[in-house]
Protein backbone atom coordinates (compact mmCIF):
# COMPACT_ATOMS: atom_id res chain seq x y z
CA UNK A 1 0.00 0.00 0.00
CA UNK A 2 1.34 3.42 -0.98
CA UNK A 3 -0.80 5.42 1.47
CA UNK A 4 1.07 6.41 4.64
CA UNK A 5 -1.76 8.50 6.12
CA UNK A 6 -5.03 7.02 7.35
CA UNK A 7 -8.23 8.92 8.04
CA UNK A 8 -10.94 7.46 10.25
CA UNK A 9 -14.35 9.10 9.80
CA UNK A 10 -16.64 8.22 12.72
CA UNK A 11 -20.39 8.64 13.01
CA UNK A 12 -22.81 7.56 15.71
CA UNK A 13 -24.15 4.26 14.37
CA UNK A 14 -27.47 2.67 13.63
CA UNK A 15 -29.08 -0.77 14.12
CA UNK A 16 -28.00 -3.60 11.79
CA UNK A 17 -31.62 -4.08 10.72
CA UNK A 18 -35.01 -2.56 11.60
CA UNK A 19 -36.04 -5.46 13.83
CA UNK A 20 -36.80 -5.32 17.56
CA UNK A 21 -33.84 -7.59 18.36
CA UNK A 22 -31.31 -5.50 16.41
CA UNK A 23 -32.73 -2.19 17.65
CA UNK A 24 -32.57 -3.49 21.23
CA UNK A 25 -28.93 -4.45 20.72
CA UNK A 26 -28.11 -1.02 19.26
CA UNK A 27 -29.93 0.93 21.99
CA UNK A 28 -28.36 -1.21 24.66
CA UNK A 29 -24.79 -0.60 23.43
CA UNK A 30 -25.51 3.11 22.90
CA UNK A 31 -27.29 3.91 26.15
CA UNK A 32 -24.98 1.82 28.36
CA UNK A 33 -22.15 4.15 27.30
CA UNK A 34 -21.18 6.13 30.46
CA UNK A 35 -20.74 9.25 28.33
CA UNK A 36 -24.35 8.98 27.12
CA UNK A 37 -26.17 8.08 30.36
CA UNK A 38 -23.71 9.64 32.78
CA UNK A 39 -24.99 8.32 36.10
CA UNK A 40 -23.61 5.67 38.50
CA UNK A 41 -23.12 2.23 36.87
CA UNK A 42 -25.81 0.45 38.90
CA UNK A 43 -28.37 3.19 38.25
CA UNK A 44 -27.48 3.19 34.54
CA UNK A 45 -27.87 -0.59 34.22
CA UNK A 46 -31.28 -0.53 35.96
CA UNK A 47 -32.52 2.50 34.00
CA UNK A 48 -31.22 1.42 30.58
CA UNK A 49 -31.65 -2.36 30.64
CA UNK A 50 -34.73 -2.43 32.87
CA UNK A 51 -36.70 0.58 31.61
CA UNK A 52 -35.50 2.55 28.56
CA UNK A 53 -34.45 -0.26 26.21
CA UNK A 54 -37.44 -2.61 26.79
CA UNK A 55 -39.94 0.24 26.36
CA UNK A 56 -38.14 2.11 23.60
CA UNK A 57 -37.04 -0.76 21.34
CA UNK A 58 -40.48 -1.66 19.93
CA UNK A 59 -41.38 2.03 19.40
CA UNK A 60 -38.03 2.84 17.79
CA UNK A 61 -38.22 -0.24 15.55
CA UNK A 62 -41.44 1.07 14.00
CA UNK A 63 -39.74 4.33 13.03
CA UNK A 64 -36.57 2.58 11.86
CA UNK A 65 -38.79 0.52 9.52
CA UNK A 66 -40.09 3.79 8.01
CA UNK A 67 -36.56 5.15 7.67
CA UNK A 68 -34.98 2.03 6.16
CA UNK A 69 -34.26 1.95 2.42
CA UNK A 70 -33.41 -0.96 0.10
CA UNK A 71 -29.74 -0.15 0.58
CA UNK A 72 -30.09 0.00 4.39
CA UNK A 73 -29.91 2.78 6.99
CA UNK A 74 -29.29 6.29 5.55
CA UNK A 75 -26.59 7.07 8.14
CA UNK A 76 -24.42 4.27 6.72
CA UNK A 77 -25.29 4.92 3.08
CA UNK A 78 -24.37 8.62 3.30
CA UNK A 79 -21.25 7.78 5.31
CA UNK A 80 -20.04 5.29 2.68
CA UNK A 81 -20.66 7.79 -0.13
CA UNK A 82 -18.80 10.51 1.78
CA UNK A 83 -15.88 8.14 2.42
CA UNK A 84 -15.63 7.22 -1.28
CA UNK A 85 -15.74 10.82 -2.47
CA UNK A 86 -13.17 11.97 0.10
CA UNK A 87 -10.91 9.05 -0.85
CA UNK A 88 -11.23 9.93 -4.52
CA UNK A 89 -10.42 13.61 -3.92
CA UNK A 90 -7.45 12.91 -1.61
CA UNK A 91 -5.82 10.30 -3.82
CA UNK A 92 -3.52 7.41 -2.99
CA UNK A 93 -1.37 9.23 -0.40
CA UNK A 94 -4.29 8.67 2.01
CA UNK A 95 -6.51 5.77 2.96
CA UNK A 96 -9.98 6.77 4.17
CA UNK A 97 -12.14 4.49 6.35
CA UNK A 98 -15.55 4.86 8.00
CA UNK A 99 -16.52 3.48 11.41
CA UNK A 100 -19.56 3.78 13.65
CA UNK A 101 -19.32 4.33 17.40
CA UNK A 102 -22.10 1.78 17.95
CA UNK A 103 -22.70 -1.40 15.92
CA UNK A 104 -21.10 -1.79 12.48
CA UNK A 105 -18.63 -1.08 10.94
CA UNK A 106 -17.20 -1.05 14.46
CA UNK A 107 -14.25 1.09 15.58
CA UNK A 108 -12.16 -1.95 16.72
CA UNK A 109 -12.64 -3.77 13.38
CA UNK A 110 -11.89 -0.75 11.22
CA UNK A 111 -8.85 0.15 13.33
CA UNK A 112 -7.59 -3.43 12.92
CA UNK A 113 -7.74 -2.87 9.17
CA UNK A 114 -5.91 0.47 9.52
CA UNK A 115 -3.25 -1.21 11.71
CA UNK A 116 -2.55 -3.68 8.91
CA UNK A 117 -1.75 -0.74 6.56
CA UNK A 118 1.22 0.19 8.80
CA UNK A 119 0.69 3.94 8.27
CA UNK A 120 2.76 6.72 9.80
CA UNK A 121 -0.20 8.91 10.82
CA UNK A 122 -3.86 8.45 11.72
CA UNK A 123 -6.40 11.27 11.82
CA UNK A 124 -9.66 10.68 13.69
CA UNK A 125 -12.47 12.86 12.37
CA UNK A 126 -15.82 12.44 14.18
CA UNK A 127 -18.66 13.54 11.91
CA UNK A 128 -20.14 15.84 14.56
CA UNK A 129 -19.46 19.55 13.98
CA UNK A 130 -20.09 20.59 17.61
CA UNK A 131 -18.29 18.82 20.47
CA UNK A 132 -20.41 16.81 22.92
CA UNK A 133 -18.99 14.25 25.30
CA UNK A 134 -21.74 11.79 24.29
CA UNK A 135 -20.91 11.98 20.56
CA UNK A 136 -17.39 13.25 19.75
CA UNK A 137 -15.97 12.47 23.20
CA UNK A 138 -17.27 8.93 23.12
CA UNK A 139 -16.00 8.28 19.59
CA UNK A 140 -12.51 9.56 20.49
CA UNK A 141 -12.42 7.53 23.70
CA UNK A 142 -13.41 4.36 21.82
CA UNK A 143 -10.56 4.93 19.33
CA UNK A 144 -8.06 5.54 22.14
CA UNK A 145 -9.19 2.38 23.98
CA UNK A 146 -8.13 0.34 20.95
CA UNK A 147 -4.95 2.16 19.97
CA UNK A 148 -3.59 2.25 23.53
CA UNK A 149 -3.04 -1.53 23.22
CA UNK A 150 -1.00 -1.38 19.99
CA UNK A 151 2.71 -2.04 20.17
CA UNK A 152 3.36 0.64 17.55
CA UNK A 153 1.35 3.80 18.15
CA UNK A 154 1.57 5.96 15.03
CA UNK A 155 1.19 9.73 15.04
CA UNK A 156 -2.39 10.18 16.22
CA UNK A 157 -4.37 13.31 15.39
CA UNK A 158 -7.85 14.14 16.61
CA UNK A 159 -10.43 16.67 15.49
CA UNK A 160 -12.72 17.79 18.33
CA UNK A 161 -15.02 20.17 16.49
CA UNK A 162 -15.22 22.34 13.38
CA UNK A 163 -18.61 24.07 13.27
CA UNK A 164 -17.02 27.52 12.93
CA UNK A 165 -15.00 26.77 9.81
CA UNK A 166 -16.07 29.00 6.89
CA UNK A 167 -16.07 25.98 4.53
CA UNK A 168 -18.46 24.05 6.80
CA UNK A 169 -20.77 27.09 6.91
CA UNK A 170 -20.48 27.34 3.12
CA UNK A 171 -21.46 23.66 2.83
CA UNK A 172 -24.54 24.36 4.98
CA UNK A 173 -25.42 27.25 2.68
CA UNK A 174 -25.07 24.95 -0.33
CA UNK A 175 -27.39 22.35 1.27
CA UNK A 176 -29.96 25.12 1.73
CA UNK A 177 -29.48 26.74 -1.67
CA UNK A 178 -32.69 25.24 -3.07
CA UNK A 179 -34.77 27.07 -0.44
CA UNK A 180 -35.21 30.81 -0.17
CA UNK A 181 -35.81 31.76 3.48
CA UNK A 182 -37.91 34.70 2.25
CA UNK A 183 -40.52 32.18 1.08
CA UNK A 184 -40.98 31.00 4.70
CA UNK A 185 -42.68 32.65 7.68
CA UNK A 186 -40.00 31.46 10.07
CA UNK A 187 -36.80 29.41 10.27
CA UNK A 188 -36.05 26.83 12.99
CA UNK A 189 -32.51 25.63 13.72
CA UNK A 190 -33.08 22.32 15.48
CA UNK A 191 -30.10 20.66 17.21
CA UNK A 192 -29.89 17.28 18.91
CA UNK A 193 -30.56 17.93 22.59
CA UNK A 194 -28.42 17.04 25.62
CA UNK A 195 -29.09 16.78 29.35
CA UNK A 196 -28.27 20.19 30.90
CA UNK A 197 -26.10 18.31 33.43
CA UNK A 198 -23.83 17.15 30.59
CA UNK A 199 -23.52 20.66 29.16
CA UNK A 200 -22.60 22.00 32.61
CA UNK A 201 -19.81 19.42 32.98
CA UNK A 202 -17.57 21.11 30.37
CA UNK A 203 -16.95 24.00 32.78
CA UNK A 204 -14.20 23.94 35.40
CA UNK A 205 -15.91 26.86 37.13
CA UNK A 206 -19.63 27.58 37.29
CA UNK A 207 -22.40 26.27 35.11
CA UNK A 208 -23.54 26.95 31.58
CA UNK A 209 -26.10 29.41 32.93
CA UNK A 210 -23.25 31.46 34.48
CA UNK A 211 -21.83 32.09 31.01
CA UNK A 212 -23.43 33.93 28.10
CA UNK A 213 -23.72 30.96 25.77
CA UNK A 214 -26.71 32.25 23.81
CA UNK A 215 -24.92 35.48 22.93
CA UNK A 216 -21.22 34.82 22.56
CA UNK A 217 -18.80 32.03 21.78
CA UNK A 218 -15.39 32.54 23.36
CA UNK A 219 -12.44 31.02 25.23
CA UNK A 220 -14.59 30.40 28.34
CA UNK A 221 -17.32 28.40 26.63
CA UNK A 222 -15.35 26.92 23.74
CA UNK A 223 -16.43 23.33 24.52
CA UNK A 224 -19.99 24.18 25.53
CA UNK A 225 -22.35 22.40 23.13
CA UNK A 226 -25.06 25.01 23.66
CA UNK A 227 -22.68 27.90 22.91
CA UNK A 228 -21.46 26.05 19.79
CA UNK A 229 -25.05 25.53 18.57
CA UNK A 230 -25.87 29.22 18.99
CA UNK A 231 -22.65 30.23 17.23
CA UNK A 232 -23.28 27.77 14.37
CA UNK A 233 -26.72 29.32 13.92
CA UNK A 234 -25.39 32.89 13.87
CA UNK A 235 -22.77 31.93 11.28
CA UNK A 236 -25.26 30.19 8.97
CA UNK A 237 -27.90 32.90 9.40
CA UNK A 238 -25.35 35.66 8.63
CA UNK A 239 -24.06 33.77 5.60
CA UNK A 240 -27.55 33.28 4.17
CA UNK A 241 -28.89 36.64 5.31
CA UNK A 242 -31.63 35.45 7.67
CA UNK A 243 -32.47 38.34 10.04
CA UNK A 244 -32.27 37.62 13.78
CA UNK A 245 -35.99 38.05 14.39
CA UNK A 246 -36.81 35.46 11.74
CA UNK A 247 -35.14 32.44 13.31
CA UNK A 248 -35.28 30.42 16.54
CA UNK A 249 -33.00 27.75 17.99
CA UNK A 250 -34.49 24.56 19.45
CA UNK A 251 -33.28 21.21 20.78
CA UNK A 252 -34.83 17.90 19.80
CA UNK A 253 -34.86 14.22 20.80
CA UNK A 254 -35.04 14.71 24.57
CA UNK A 255 -35.34 11.74 26.90
CA UNK A 256 -36.66 13.85 29.81
CA UNK A 257 -37.51 17.42 30.85
CA UNK A 258 -34.02 18.26 32.11
CA UNK A 259 -32.59 18.58 28.60
CA UNK A 260 -31.61 21.78 26.80
CA UNK A 261 -34.55 24.06 26.04
CA UNK A 262 -36.52 25.26 24.15
CA UNK A 263 -37.75 21.92 22.83
CA UNK A 264 -38.10 21.89 19.05
CA UNK A 265 -41.42 20.00 18.99
CA UNK A 266 -43.00 22.59 21.31
CA UNK A 267 -41.63 25.43 19.17
CA UNK A 268 -43.10 23.88 16.01
CA UNK A 269 -46.51 23.72 17.71
CA UNK A 270 -46.18 27.35 18.91
CA UNK A 271 -45.21 28.60 15.45
CA UNK A 272 -48.26 26.95 13.88
CA UNK A 273 -50.58 28.32 16.61
CA UNK A 274 -49.10 31.80 16.05
CA UNK A 275 -50.25 31.60 12.44
CA UNK A 276 -47.00 30.70 10.69
CA UNK A 277 -47.89 28.70 7.59
CA UNK A 278 -44.49 27.88 6.14
CA UNK A 279 -41.53 26.77 8.23
CA UNK A 280 -37.96 26.07 7.10
CA UNK A 281 -35.95 23.75 9.38
CA UNK A 282 -32.16 23.37 9.54
CA UNK A 283 -30.51 20.57 11.56
CA UNK A 284 -26.80 21.47 11.62
CA UNK A 285 -25.73 18.99 14.34
CA UNK A 286 -26.26 16.13 11.90
CA UNK A 287 -23.94 15.81 8.94
CA UNK A 288 -25.92 12.91 7.47
CA UNK A 289 -29.65 12.41 7.22
CA UNK A 290 -30.86 9.85 9.74
CA UNK A 291 -33.76 8.98 12.00
CA UNK A 292 -33.48 12.32 13.79
CA UNK A 293 -33.79 14.42 10.65
CA UNK A 294 -35.88 12.44 8.16
CA UNK A 295 -38.37 11.00 10.64
CA UNK A 296 -38.32 13.26 13.69
CA UNK A 297 -38.26 16.55 11.79
CA UNK A 298 -39.46 15.55 8.31
CA UNK A 299 -42.41 13.43 9.47
CA UNK A 300 -43.19 14.00 13.16
CA UNK A 301 -42.67 17.79 13.30
CA UNK A 302 -44.42 18.13 9.95
CA UNK A 303 -47.43 16.37 11.48
CA UNK A 304 -47.37 18.60 14.60
CA UNK A 305 -47.10 21.71 12.41
CA UNK A 306 -50.04 20.73 10.20
CA UNK A 307 -52.24 19.55 13.10
CA UNK A 308 -51.92 23.03 14.60
CA UNK A 309 -52.67 25.05 11.47
CA UNK A 310 -49.33 25.11 9.62
CA UNK A 311 -49.22 24.24 5.94
CA UNK A 312 -45.69 23.35 4.91
CA UNK A 313 -42.61 22.33 6.87
CA UNK A 314 -39.46 22.09 4.77
CA UNK A 315 -36.44 20.23 6.14
CA UNK A 316 -33.09 21.35 4.74
CA UNK A 317 -31.23 18.12 3.87
CA UNK A 318 -28.09 17.28 5.81
CA UNK A 319 -24.68 17.68 4.19
CA UNK A 320 -24.58 13.94 3.32
CA UNK A 321 -21.97 13.81 0.54
CA UNK A 322 -22.61 17.17 -1.11
CA UNK A 323 -19.55 18.60 -2.92
CA UNK A 324 -18.80 21.45 -0.51
CA UNK A 325 -18.99 19.09 2.46
CA UNK A 326 -16.58 16.71 0.71
CA UNK A 327 -14.28 19.72 0.13
CA UNK A 328 -14.58 20.70 3.82
CA UNK A 329 -13.68 17.20 5.02
CA UNK A 330 -10.69 17.11 2.63
CA UNK A 331 -9.57 20.57 3.81
CA UNK A 332 -9.74 19.52 7.48
CA UNK A 333 -7.63 16.45 6.67
CA UNK A 334 -5.05 18.21 4.48
CA UNK A 335 -4.53 20.98 7.04
CA UNK A 336 -3.53 18.38 9.62
CA UNK A 337 -1.55 15.76 7.70
C1 LIG B 1 -25.26 15.45 17.38
C2 LIG B 1 -24.93 14.25 17.68
C3 LIG B 1 -25.60 13.47 18.73
C4 LIG B 1 -25.57 13.66 20.10
C5 LIG B 1 -24.83 14.72 20.87
C6 LIG B 1 -26.42 12.66 20.67
C7 LIG B 1 -26.67 12.52 22.03
C8 LIG B 1 -27.60 11.64 22.59
N1 LIG B 1 -28.51 10.83 21.93
C9 LIG B 1 -29.28 10.12 22.82
C10 LIG B 1 -30.29 9.20 22.52
C11 LIG B 1 -30.62 8.73 21.23
N2 LIG B 1 -30.16 9.22 20.03
C12 LIG B 1 -30.62 8.43 19.01
C13 LIG B 1 -30.35 8.57 17.67
C14 LIG B 1 -29.36 9.38 17.12
N3 LIG B 1 -28.58 10.30 17.78
C15 LIG B 1 -27.71 10.89 16.91
C16 LIG B 1 -26.74 11.87 17.19
C17 LIG B 1 -26.45 12.35 18.47
N4 LIG B 1 -26.90 11.88 19.66
C18 LIG B 1 -27.96 10.33 15.61
C19 LIG B 1 -27.20 10.68 14.38
C20 LIG B 1 -28.99 9.41 15.74
C21 LIG B 1 -29.69 8.65 14.63
C22 LIG B 1 -29.12 7.28 14.31
C23 LIG B 1 -29.82 6.59 13.17
O1 LIG B 1 -29.83 5.35 13.21
O2 LIG B 1 -30.35 7.17 12.21
C24 LIG B 1 -31.45 7.40 19.56
C25 LIG B 1 -32.07 6.23 18.78
C26 LIG B 1 -33.34 6.51 18.14
C27 LIG B 1 -34.46 6.51 19.11
O3 LIG B 1 -34.75 5.49 19.73
O4 LIG B 1 -35.04 7.60 19.30
C28 LIG B 1 -31.47 7.58 20.95
C29 LIG B 1 -32.19 6.74 21.98
C30 LIG B 1 -28.81 10.47 24.12
C31 LIG B 1 -29.39 9.91 25.41
C32 LIG B 1 -27.80 11.43 23.98
C33 LIG B 1 -26.98 12.15 24.99
C34 LIG B 1 -27.13 12.11 26.26
FE1 LIG C 1 -28.83 10.82 19.83
FE1 LIG D 1 -22.54 27.07 28.06
TrEMBL record:
Main location: cytoplasm
Role summary: Catalyzes the ferrous insertion into protoporphyrin IX.
Protein's recorded name: Ferrochelatase
One cellular component term from this protein's GO annotations in UniProt: cytoplasm
Gene from which the chain derives: hemH
One Pfam family here: Ferrochelatase
Gene3D superfamilies referenced in this protein's UniProt entry, alphabetically: 3.40.50.1400
One GO BP: heme biosynthetic process
Amino acid sequence: MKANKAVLLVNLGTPKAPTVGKVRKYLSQFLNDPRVIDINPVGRAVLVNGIIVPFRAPKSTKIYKELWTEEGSPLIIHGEKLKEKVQQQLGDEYVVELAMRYQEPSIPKVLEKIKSYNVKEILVLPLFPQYASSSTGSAIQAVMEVIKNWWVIPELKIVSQYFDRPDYIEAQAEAAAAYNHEDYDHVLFSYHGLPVRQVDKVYNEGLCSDHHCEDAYDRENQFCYKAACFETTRLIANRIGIPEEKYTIGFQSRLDKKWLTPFSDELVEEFAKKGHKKLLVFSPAFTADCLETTIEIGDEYDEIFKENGGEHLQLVPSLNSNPKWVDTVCNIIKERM
